[in-house]
Specification:
Length: 190
C-alpha cells in the first residue's frame, strides 16, 4: 500500500474514533479530563512509559526466547508489518502515530475506561487489534499495553500522558519496523 494512502487511512479511521469519543462524552455528559497533573509531569511520564514499552517491544522482537507468542509477534512483524510499512517516511510515521495516539486514547482511556473500567477497556483495546487468528499474540500485546496506558491514565488523572506514550511508542515501533534490522528467525522447537 502506498505510504500516502496509509496516512490517509489512519487519519480517517482514527478521526472516526475521535468523533465517537467526543459524541459519547457529549451524549453521556462525561468529563473528558486532559490531565490532573501538570503538563510537564504528564509529558515526562508519557515519555518514560513510551521508552519502557519500546524497550520491551525490542526485547520481544530480538532477544526473548522463541516461545509460541514471541514467535507469532516476530512472524507478524516480518510478514505483515514490514511489508505494510516498507515505504513510509518520517512524515507518514509522524502522522500515523499522532492519529493513532489521539484517536485511540481519547476513546479507550478518555471514554471507555471511565465508563467500563480498566480491565474491560484494555481487553477491548487488545481484541480490536486482532485482525485474524495469527494475530492473537499481537492482540494480547496490545491489551497489555492498553492496561499500562490505562494505569497511566489513572495515575495522571487524564488522557494526555497515555496519549504522549502511545504516540511516541507507535513512532518508535514504526521506525523500527521501517528501518530496523530483521528480527531473529527462530522457530519453536518441536
Amino acid at each position: 500500500m502506498p505510504a500516502k494512502r496509509l496516512l490517509v487511512l489512519a487519519l480517517c479511521g482514527e478521526g472516526v474514533l475521535v468523533l465517537v469519543a467526543c459524541s459519547w462524552t457529549w451524549f453521556a455528559d462525561l468529563p473528558l479530563v486532559f490531565s490532573a497533573i501538570s503538563i510537564s509531569a504528564a509529558l515526562g511520564v508519557g515519555i518514560l512509559t513510551a521508552a519502557g514499552f519500546s524497550l520491551l517491544n525490542y526485547y520481544l522482537l530480538r532477544l526473548a526466547p522463541a516461545v509460541l507468542g514471541v514467535c507469532s509477534l516476530r512472524q507478524m512483524h516480518r510478514e505483515v508489518f514490514r511489508p505494510l510499512f516498507a515505504r513510509v517516511g518520517v512524515l507518514e510515521i509522524a502522522g500515523i502515530s499522532l492519529a493513532a495516539g489521539v484517536g485511540e486514547e481519547l476513546l479507550f482511556r478518555g471514554v471507555l475506561q471511565p465508563e467500563l473500567g480498566l480491565i474491560p477497556a484494555s481487553v477491548l483495546f487488545g481484541v480490536l487489534h486482532i485482525g485474524g487468528g495469527r494475530q492473537i499474540a499481537f492482540g494480547v500485546w496490545a491489551a497489555i499495553c492498553g492496561g499500562g496506558l490505562g494505569i497511566l491514565a489513572q495515575a495522571t488523572g487524564g488522557w494526555f500522558a497515555p496519549t504522549v506514550a502511545h504516540v511516541l511508542y507507535d513512532a518508535a515501533a514504526l521506525t523500527y519496523i521501517r528501518w530496523g534490522p530483521g528480527e531473529h528467525r527462530q522457530s519453536i522447537p518441536r
